[in-house]
Amino acid sequence: MLQKPKSVKLRALRSPRKFGVAGRSCQEVLRKGCLRFQLPERGSRLCLYEDGTELTEDYFPSVPDNAELVLLTSGQAWQGYVSDIGRFLSAFHEPQVGLIQAAQQLLCDEQAPQRQRLLADLLHNVSQNIAAETRAEDPPWFEGLESRFQSKSGYLRYSCESRIRSYLREVSSYPSTVGAEAQEEFLRVLGSMCQKLRSVQYNGSYFDRGAKGGSRLCTPEGWFSCQGPFDMDSCLSRHSINPYSNRESRILFSTWNLDHIIEKKRTIIPTLVEAIKEQDGREVDWEYFYGLLFTSENLKLVHIVCHKKTTHKLNCDPSRIYKPQTRLKRKRPVRKRQ
Fold first, then answer.
1. Where is each CIDE-N domain found (predicted)?
2. Into how many domains does the chain fold?
3. Which residues are within 8 A (CB) of 265 and not within 5 positions of it... i.e. 6 or more apart?
4. pTM (2 d.p.)
């Protein structure tokens, strides 16, 4: 709980009115909001007006003062003006000049704050150059990046490759922990993983909107959706982002995690090390561990708010740690003809 109350601007989903509310915790703001709008507290929740991020007690301290919040009751949903409008406009291949001009004129004449905000969001999103791909087509998107990056897909592919390479470096630091006898086998497994990663270009296609459908995590327009948290069927706040739209979205996307459902450091690598130590003539199924460490079989894209820092409490499948041993068929003795 905060020592000093945090002030926010609160509105209900279907109410044009907005009130200032202060509280030291998310629950206190929720309680005051329900009282103000005469809504039931049970089943109600708070989310950010901008993008629909649902507030929790842990997230509440990071919300800026005077942030705009929406109060939702049971069964209601809010994804934010920016998200909804952006999804709609991403279907267009070119900015709609007539739409921009009309929105600009309306914004000049509009007096209601809520509709002013909606029109401003509309202009912000329609002006984004989502369809542009090259540096020449959208120079602002590439600000701060090295000159070698000439396409958006190329940079985002590199970004994904870098994350996968970092996981490989972690695994590569473990041979010294397995003892002299098992080091050779560990290095053999590691070599097989490296070879496979090189053959698929370190799965950089996950972030490349130009890749085939089964190889990417986004839509053909470049929209990514949160795939967490792992203890629920879907992300309750339904976060979405398009890092191809503008520089700010590209930078924000870098805070999203490629998270392991079965944890890498606490579970996968220790299980692999133990399997190599205790193989006793059995062959470690390195492809199973490869899938857990480096592929979407076990990697999920998660918004930073939904990232769970607690233990996931999931383990490797004991039946898949070693390859099945083939049984040699016994040869029947040849019968002598009488």
1. 4-80
2. 3
3. 170
4. 0.61
